[in-house]
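USER: Please consider what follows.
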Amino acid sequence: MRFIKFFFIIVALCFLQSCSKTSLYQSKHYVFGTIVDISIYGESDKKAEEATQAVLHEFTRLHHSLHAWKRSDLTSLNEAIAKNKPYINPSPELTEILKEAKILEDASNHLFNPAIGELIDYWGFHQDEFTPIHPDKSKIKVLVERKPSLDQLSISGSSISSANAHVKIDLGGYAKGYALDQAKKILHERQIKNALINIGGNIIAIGQHGNKPWRVGIQDPRGSQAIAKLDLPDGWAIGTSGDYQRYFINDGIRYCHLIHPFTGFPIQNVYSVTVLIEPAKNAGTLSDVLSKPLFIGKKEDREALAKKLNIHHYLIIEENRISMTQTMADKIQFLDMHSQKKNHLEITH
């Protein structure tokens, strides 16, 4: 089966606002299994290119360190856990990432759970191309009943271990956002005042584009164009989880990579969830992580979960239904009015 990969959020630089060829430096690359788009405004090409290369070098390092199924620090950790052995002398960075991911797992009521790598692998998402499978309910039940969680990690300065040998860590819902935060640090160190970093739809803004905020578009999850646009001010980040990039279809059923830790099955009937994150030290990380609990959780629990996680701005697109917070509605502008009208639009508080 051939899979057409769409991108979570379309950066709307030259399409949604005018571009200055002399002031805007843009570069596209392929890292983390997706397109990385780096835009720097108001700097010489030489300074912008050097800063871009520094960011890409960091992205490549993180890709090799945190990869979930190709040889990496993370796979070495998972192999040690599977053998009931401690992983000795983990990097300080990996230790801190796991500590933060554990906090976020707990806060999300375990809907964001990076320890379910066995389930992700079972569904075939630990590979670059996805082969449709016929799910075995009994096998999935066994994997779920193993109840892997980052809570089962024992983390110290010199080792990481787990009481549950079935903890298999996959940071696919964390790493791109973490990389955004690292990119922001690098650009600030290099005195880049205005930039937009996009890793497959997880985006963070630094400064602005000329005399206007950076403007981004939110993709139609059932099309290739932007369905809406909004301004992304300095320090804000945006991220989307969707069922339309990593998925396969079998017997007319769409199975995406977003798996419910309690059922073991991919989520269905939710097309996309977009969260807008206010400036924070880890805004990039939060833009990656926090869309997952809203995507996976029950519809009736979303408002309470969003409140618990301090998500003030979100947009959820389902079949014939679009819902969003009032604060998101105040910031967003729909481009496809026909699409908006044919869907039931609900504003939450």
Residues 45-66 form the longest helix (22 residues). The two ends are 42 Å apart (CA to CA).
